[in-house]
Amino acid sequence: MSAIDERRNAGRVVVGMRADAALFLPRPLRTSACVCFFRAMKRAAWTLAWLLLGCHAAKAPVSQPDDPSRLRSPEAFAQVRDMGSRSQALFREASKVMLHPRCTNCHPPDDTPRQLASQRPHDPPVARGNEGQGVPGMECASCHQDVNLELARVPGAPNWHLAPIEAAWLGRTPSQICEQLKDPTRNGGKTLQAIVDHAANDALVAWGWSPGHDREPAPGTQEIYGALMQAWLDTGAHCPQGGLP
Ligand code: HEC
Ligand code: HEC
Protein backbone atom coordinates (compact mmCIF):
# COMPACT_ATOMS: atom_id res chain seq x y z
CA MET A 1 0.00 0.00 0.00
CA SER A 2 1.46 3.40 -0.97
CA ALA A 3 1.68 6.35 1.41
CA ILE A 4 -1.14 8.07 -0.48
CA ASP A 5 -3.44 5.05 -0.25
CA GLU A 6 -2.78 4.89 3.47
CA ARG A 7 -3.68 8.54 3.83
CA ARG A 8 -6.74 8.15 1.68
CA ASN A 9 -7.85 5.22 3.83
CA ALA A 10 -7.08 7.16 6.98
CA GLY A 11 -9.38 9.90 5.67
CA ARG A 12 -12.11 7.41 4.89
CA VAL A 13 -12.07 5.91 8.38
CA VAL A 14 -12.57 9.35 9.89
CA VAL A 15 -15.23 10.34 7.37
CA GLY A 16 -16.98 7.03 8.07
CA MET A 17 -16.90 7.85 11.75
CA ARG A 18 -18.33 11.31 11.21
CA ALA A 19 -21.18 9.94 9.17
CA ASP A 20 -22.52 7.50 11.75
CA ALA A 21 -20.61 6.49 14.86
CA ALA A 22 -19.14 9.94 15.46
CA LEU A 23 -22.61 11.47 15.88
CA PHE A 24 -23.10 9.39 19.03
CA LEU A 25 -19.76 10.36 20.51
CA PRO A 26 -19.47 13.04 23.19
CA ARG A 27 -18.77 16.53 21.69
CA PRO A 28 -14.96 16.71 22.50
CA LEU A 29 -14.38 13.43 20.74
CA ARG A 30 -16.43 14.57 17.69
CA THR A 31 -14.30 17.71 17.46
CA SER A 32 -11.11 15.68 17.57
CA ALA A 33 -12.47 13.47 14.77
CA CYS A 34 -12.98 16.61 12.65
CA VAL A 35 -9.52 17.99 13.49
CA CYS A 36 -8.06 14.64 12.59
CA PHE A 37 -9.95 14.67 9.29
CA PHE A 38 -8.67 18.12 8.34
CA ARG A 39 -5.10 17.18 9.29
CA ALA A 40 -5.33 14.17 6.99
CA MET A 41 -6.63 16.41 4.18
CA LYS A 42 -3.80 18.88 4.73
CA ARG A 43 -1.20 16.13 4.59
CA ALA A 44 -2.78 14.77 1.39
CA ALA A 45 -2.65 18.24 -0.19
CA TRP A 46 1.07 18.56 0.62
CA THR A 47 1.79 15.10 -0.75
CA LEU A 48 -0.04 16.04 -3.98
CA ALA A 49 1.91 19.29 -4.26
CA TRP A 50 5.22 17.40 -3.90
CA LEU A 51 4.14 14.84 -6.47
CA LEU A 52 3.20 17.56 -8.97
CA LEU A 53 6.50 19.34 -8.39
CA GLY A 54 8.32 16.03 -8.90
CA CYS A 55 6.56 15.39 -12.26
CA HIS A 56 7.35 18.89 -13.43
CA ALA A 57 11.03 18.52 -12.57
CA ALA A 58 11.15 15.21 -14.51
CA LYS A 59 10.38 17.13 -17.72
CA ALA A 60 13.56 19.20 -17.48
CA PRO A 61 15.98 18.18 -20.26
CA VAL A 62 19.46 16.66 -19.91
CA SER A 63 19.89 17.25 -16.16
CA GLN A 64 17.82 14.10 -15.59
CA PRO A 65 19.49 10.67 -15.64
CA ASP A 66 19.11 8.90 -18.97
CA ASP A 67 15.87 6.94 -19.32
CA PRO A 68 15.62 4.57 -22.31
CA SER A 69 11.84 5.01 -22.58
CA ARG A 70 12.12 8.81 -23.04
CA LEU A 71 13.40 10.47 -26.18
CA ARG A 72 15.02 13.89 -25.85
CA SER A 73 14.62 16.33 -28.73
CA PRO A 74 17.65 17.91 -30.49
CA GLU A 75 17.36 21.14 -28.39
CA ALA A 76 18.36 19.14 -25.32
CA PHE A 77 21.83 18.78 -26.89
CA ALA A 78 22.36 22.44 -27.82
CA GLN A 79 24.59 22.91 -24.78
CA VAL A 80 27.15 20.41 -26.13
CA ARG A 81 29.55 22.92 -27.70
CA ASP A 82 31.79 20.57 -29.66
CA MET A 83 29.98 19.68 -32.93
CA GLY A 84 31.53 16.22 -33.16
CA SER A 85 30.48 15.30 -29.62
CA ARG A 86 27.01 16.78 -30.15
CA SER A 87 26.58 14.78 -33.34
CA GLN A 88 27.58 11.58 -31.57
CA ALA A 89 25.20 12.30 -28.68
CA LEU A 90 22.34 12.98 -31.11
CA PHE A 91 22.89 9.64 -32.85
CA ARG A 92 23.11 7.80 -29.55
CA GLU A 93 19.76 9.32 -28.54
CA ALA A 94 18.17 8.37 -31.90
CA SER A 95 19.48 4.82 -31.48
CA LYS A 96 17.15 4.39 -28.48
CA VAL A 97 14.48 4.16 -31.18
CA MET A 98 16.44 2.00 -33.64
CA LEU A 99 17.33 -0.53 -30.94
CA HIS A 100 13.73 -0.85 -29.72
CA PRO A 101 12.08 -4.23 -30.43
CA ARG A 102 9.45 -2.51 -32.66
CA CYS A 103 12.30 -1.70 -35.04
CA THR A 104 14.85 -4.51 -34.49
CA ASN A 105 12.15 -7.21 -34.88
CA CYS A 106 12.04 -6.23 -38.56
CA HIS A 107 15.79 -5.44 -38.86
CA PRO A 108 17.35 -8.86 -37.98
CA PRO A 109 20.83 -10.04 -39.05
CA ASP A 110 19.38 -13.31 -40.43
CA ASP A 111 16.35 -14.48 -42.44
CA THR A 112 13.79 -14.55 -39.59
CA PRO A 113 11.70 -11.64 -38.33
CA ARG A 114 11.27 -11.49 -34.55
CA GLN A 115 8.12 -10.98 -32.48
CA LEU A 116 7.04 -9.32 -29.24
CA ALA A 117 9.20 -7.76 -26.55
CA SER A 118 10.95 -11.13 -26.05
CA GLN A 119 12.08 -10.97 -29.70
CA ARG A 120 11.42 -14.67 -30.22
CA PRO A 121 11.63 -15.97 -33.81
CA HIS A 122 8.50 -15.31 -35.90
CA ASP A 123 5.67 -17.79 -35.21
CA PRO A 124 4.58 -19.29 -37.64
CA PRO A 125 8.06 -19.72 -39.13
CA VAL A 126 8.59 -17.44 -42.13
CA ALA A 127 11.66 -16.73 -44.27
CA ARG A 128 13.05 -13.56 -45.80
CA GLY A 129 12.62 -14.81 -49.38
CA ASN A 130 12.89 -12.53 -52.35
CA GLU A 131 13.45 -8.85 -51.44
CA GLY A 132 12.31 -9.51 -47.86
CA GLN A 133 8.73 -10.18 -49.00
CA GLY A 134 8.61 -13.82 -47.81
CA VAL A 135 8.48 -17.04 -49.83
CA PRO A 136 5.64 -18.17 -52.15
CA GLY A 137 2.70 -19.31 -50.05
CA MET A 138 4.12 -17.49 -47.00
CA GLU A 139 4.44 -13.93 -48.27
CA CYS A 140 4.36 -11.29 -45.53
CA ALA A 141 1.46 -9.57 -47.29
CA SER A 142 -0.74 -12.68 -47.13
CA CYS A 143 -1.09 -12.06 -43.38
CA HIS A 144 0.11 -8.49 -42.79
CA GLN A 145 -2.33 -5.91 -44.23
CA ASP A 146 -2.02 -2.13 -44.60
CA VAL A 147 -3.34 -1.64 -41.05
CA ASN A 148 -3.17 -3.47 -37.73
CA LEU A 149 -5.78 -6.21 -37.43
CA GLU A 150 -6.65 -5.86 -33.77
CA LEU A 151 -8.79 -8.99 -33.35
CA ALA A 152 -6.32 -11.28 -35.10
CA ARG A 153 -3.32 -9.55 -33.43
CA VAL A 154 -1.61 -9.18 -36.83
CA PRO A 155 0.36 -5.92 -37.07
CA GLY A 156 0.15 -4.11 -40.40
CA ALA A 157 1.38 -1.13 -42.44
CA PRO A 158 1.66 -0.50 -46.19
CA ASN A 159 4.24 -2.70 -47.96
CA TRP A 160 5.11 -4.77 -44.87
CA HIS A 161 8.39 -6.64 -45.51
CA LEU A 162 11.74 -7.39 -43.90
CA ALA A 163 14.54 -4.79 -43.89
CA PRO A 164 17.58 -5.77 -46.03
CA ILE A 165 20.15 -7.86 -44.19
CA GLU A 166 22.73 -5.06 -44.68
CA ALA A 167 20.41 -2.85 -42.59
CA ALA A 168 20.39 -5.34 -39.68
CA TRP A 169 20.26 -3.66 -36.27
CA LEU A 170 19.33 -6.51 -33.91
CA GLY A 171 22.32 -7.21 -31.61
CA ARG A 172 24.37 -4.29 -32.94
CA THR A 173 25.73 -1.25 -31.05
CA PRO A 174 24.77 2.36 -31.91
CA SER A 175 28.30 2.79 -33.27
CA GLN A 176 27.94 -0.20 -35.64
CA ILE A 177 24.47 0.92 -36.78
CA CYS A 178 25.81 4.40 -37.49
CA GLU A 179 28.76 3.12 -39.56
CA GLN A 180 26.56 0.86 -41.67
CA LEU A 181 23.99 3.63 -42.27
CA LYS A 182 26.80 5.77 -43.70
CA ASP A 183 28.32 3.01 -45.81
CA PRO A 184 27.03 3.23 -49.43
CA THR A 185 27.76 -0.49 -49.94
CA ARG A 186 25.40 -1.34 -47.06
CA ASN A 187 22.73 1.38 -47.24
CA GLY A 188 21.49 0.61 -50.74
CA GLY A 189 23.52 3.49 -52.20
CA LYS A 190 21.28 6.09 -50.55
CA THR A 191 22.38 9.61 -49.63
CA LEU A 192 22.33 10.37 -45.91
CA GLN A 193 19.56 12.89 -46.56
CA ALA A 194 17.45 10.11 -48.15
CA ILE A 195 17.96 7.96 -45.04
CA VAL A 196 16.98 10.83 -42.76
CA ASP A 197 13.86 11.48 -44.87
CA HIS A 198 13.00 7.78 -44.71
CA ALA A 199 13.36 7.90 -40.91
CA ALA A 200 11.09 10.94 -40.66
CA ASN A 201 8.37 9.93 -43.15
CA ASP A 202 8.28 6.20 -43.96
CA ALA A 203 5.07 4.31 -43.14
CA LEU A 204 6.83 1.18 -41.82
CA VAL A 205 8.86 3.40 -39.50
CA ALA A 206 5.65 5.21 -38.45
CA TRP A 207 4.11 1.86 -37.45
CA GLY A 208 6.68 1.72 -34.60
CA TRP A 209 4.63 4.36 -32.74
CA SER A 210 1.20 2.82 -33.40
CA PRO A 211 2.00 -0.88 -33.26
CA GLY A 212 -1.49 -1.97 -32.21
CA HIS A 213 -2.77 -4.39 -29.61
CA ASP A 214 -0.64 -4.40 -26.44
CA ARG A 215 2.73 -3.81 -28.13
CA GLU A 216 4.89 -1.12 -26.54
CA PRO A 217 5.52 1.78 -28.97
CA ALA A 218 9.05 2.97 -29.74
CA PRO A 219 10.24 5.84 -27.46
CA GLY A 220 9.16 9.44 -28.20
CA THR A 221 7.52 10.20 -31.56
CA GLN A 222 8.53 9.77 -35.19
CA GLU A 223 8.78 13.56 -35.38
CA ILE A 224 11.39 13.74 -32.62
CA TYR A 225 13.26 10.74 -34.05
CA GLY A 226 13.31 12.39 -37.51
CA ALA A 227 14.48 15.68 -35.97
CA LEU A 228 17.31 13.89 -34.10
CA MET A 229 18.47 12.20 -37.31
CA GLN A 230 18.34 15.52 -39.21
CA ALA A 231 20.29 17.28 -36.44
CA TRP A 232 22.83 14.41 -36.47
CA LEU A 233 23.32 14.94 -40.22
CA ASP A 234 23.48 18.74 -39.86
CA THR A 235 26.23 18.44 -37.22
CA GLY A 236 28.44 16.35 -39.51
CA ALA A 237 26.96 12.82 -39.07
CA HIS A 238 29.63 11.69 -36.59
CA CYS A 239 29.31 8.16 -35.23
CA PRO A 240 29.47 7.30 -31.51
CA GLN A 241 32.87 5.81 -30.74
CA GLY A 242 33.65 2.33 -29.49
CA GLY A 243 31.47 -0.66 -28.76
CA LEU A 244 29.61 0.99 -25.89
CA PRO A 245 25.90 0.13 -25.97
C1 HEC B 1 0.90 -16.81 -41.59
C2 HEC B 1 0.75 -15.40 -41.26
C3 HEC B 1 2.00 -14.54 -41.26
C4 HEC B 1 2.97 -14.41 -42.24
C5 HEC B 1 3.07 -15.14 -43.58
C6 HEC B 1 3.91 -13.41 -41.75
N1 HEC B 1 3.52 -12.96 -40.51
FE1 HEC B 1 4.51 -11.62 -39.37
N2 HEC B 1 3.18 -11.89 -37.83
C7 HEC B 1 2.05 -12.67 -37.92
C8 HEC B 1 1.31 -12.57 -36.68
C9 HEC B 1 0.01 -13.27 -36.32
C10 HEC B 1 2.06 -11.70 -35.84
C11 HEC B 1 1.72 -11.23 -34.42
C12 HEC B 1 2.32 -12.10 -33.35
C13 HEC B 1 1.94 -11.55 -31.97
O1 HEC B 1 2.17 -10.37 -31.72
O2 HEC B 1 1.43 -12.33 -31.17
C14 HEC B 1 3.21 -11.30 -36.61
C15 HEC B 1 4.21 -10.46 -36.12
C16 HEC B 1 5.26 -9.99 -36.89
C17 HEC B 1 6.28 -9.10 -36.40
C18 HEC B 1 6.41 -8.63 -34.96
C19 HEC B 1 6.01 -7.23 -34.67
C20 HEC B 1 6.44 -6.91 -33.24
O3 HEC B 1 7.24 -5.99 -33.07
O4 HEC B 1 6.02 -7.60 -32.29
C21 HEC B 1 7.14 -8.85 -37.44
C22 HEC B 1 8.36 -7.96 -37.41
C23 HEC B 1 6.65 -9.58 -38.58
N3 HEC B 1 5.52 -10.27 -38.20
C24 HEC B 1 7.25 -9.58 -39.81
C25 HEC B 1 6.88 -10.42 -40.84
C26 HEC B 1 7.58 -10.47 -42.09
C27 HEC B 1 8.75 -9.60 -42.48
C28 HEC B 1 6.97 -11.44 -42.85
C29 HEC B 1 7.37 -11.94 -44.22
C30 HEC B 1 8.76 -12.33 -44.38
C31 HEC B 1 5.88 -11.99 -42.04
N4 HEC B 1 5.87 -11.33 -40.82
C32 HEC B 1 5.03 -13.00 -42.44
C33 HEC B 1 1.65 -13.44 -38.99
C34 HEC B 1 2.36 -13.62 -40.17
C1 HEC C 1 7.77 -4.30 -41.15
C2 HEC C 1 9.19 -4.23 -41.12
C3 HEC C 1 9.87 -2.96 -40.64
C4 HEC C 1 9.69 -2.33 -39.44
C5 HEC C 1 8.71 -2.67 -38.34
C6 HEC C 1 10.68 -1.27 -39.40
N1 HEC C 1 11.41 -1.24 -40.55
FE1 HEC C 1 12.89 0.06 -41.05
N2 HEC C 1 13.11 -0.83 -42.84
C7 HEC C 1 12.31 -1.83 -43.34
C8 HEC C 1 12.61 -2.04 -44.75
C9 HEC C 1 11.95 -3.03 -45.67
C10 HEC C 1 13.64 -1.12 -45.08
C11 HEC C 1 14.30 -0.89 -46.47
C12 HEC C 1 13.47 0.16 -47.14
C13 HEC C 1 14.05 0.61 -48.44
O1 HEC C 1 15.21 0.32 -48.74
O2 HEC C 1 13.33 1.35 -49.15
C14 HEC C 1 13.92 -0.37 -43.86
C15 HEC C 1 14.87 0.62 -43.78
C16 HEC C 1 14.98 1.51 -42.72
C17 HEC C 1 15.89 2.63 -42.69
C18 HEC C 1 16.90 2.99 -43.76
C19 HEC C 1 18.17 2.24 -43.45
C20 HEC C 1 19.08 2.00 -44.59
O3 HEC C 1 20.24 1.62 -44.32
O4 HEC C 1 18.66 2.17 -45.74
C21 HEC C 1 15.68 3.29 -41.52
C22 HEC C 1 16.41 4.53 -41.02
C23 HEC C 1 14.64 2.56 -40.82
N3 HEC C 1 14.24 1.48 -41.56
C24 HEC C 1 14.16 2.91 -39.58
C25 HEC C 1 13.24 2.16 -38.87
C26 HEC C 1 12.83 2.49 -37.52
C27 HEC C 1 13.35 3.64 -36.70
C28 HEC C 1 11.89 1.56 -37.16
C29 HEC C 1 11.12 1.47 -35.86
C30 HEC C 1 10.46 2.69 -35.39
C31 HEC C 1 11.72 0.65 -38.29
N4 HEC C 1 12.58 1.03 -39.29
C32 HEC C 1 10.85 -0.42 -38.31
C33 HEC C 1 11.38 -2.55 -42.64
C34 HEC C 1 10.93 -2.25 -41.35
Outline the structure in words.
It is a single chain. This protein is mostly helical. It is 45% helix and 3% strand. It contains 9 helices and 4 strands. It has helices at 3-19, 27-58, 83-98, 101-104, 140-143, 174-182, 192-201, 203-207, 222-234, and strands spanning 114-115, 120-121, 134-135, 138-139. The chain has a two-stranded antiparallel sheet with strand order 1-2. A two-stranded antiparallel sheet has the order 3-4.
Topology diagram in text:
Blueprint: H1 3-19, H2 27-58, H3 83-98, H4 101-104, E1 114-115, E2 120-121, E3 134-135, E4 138-139, H5 140-143, H6 174-182, H7 192-201, H8 203-207, H9 222-234
Antiparallel strand pairs: 1-2, 3-4
Helix pairs in contact: 1-2, 3-9, 7-9
Major sheet description: 2 strands, antiparallel
Assembly state: single chain
Shape: globular
- The first-to-last residue Cα distance is 37 Å
Helical residues, percent:
40-55%
Instruction: Report the order of strands and helices.
Output: HHHHEEEEHHHHH
In total, the number of strands is 4
Low-confidence stretches: 1-23, 53-63
Output the keywords:
two-stranded antiparallel ribbon, 2 domains, single chain, 9 helices, 3% strand, two-stranded antiparallel sheet, mainly alpha, binds heme C
Quick structural gist:
The protein is mainly alpha-helical. It folds into two domains: 56 residues, no CATH class; 161 residues, no CATH class.
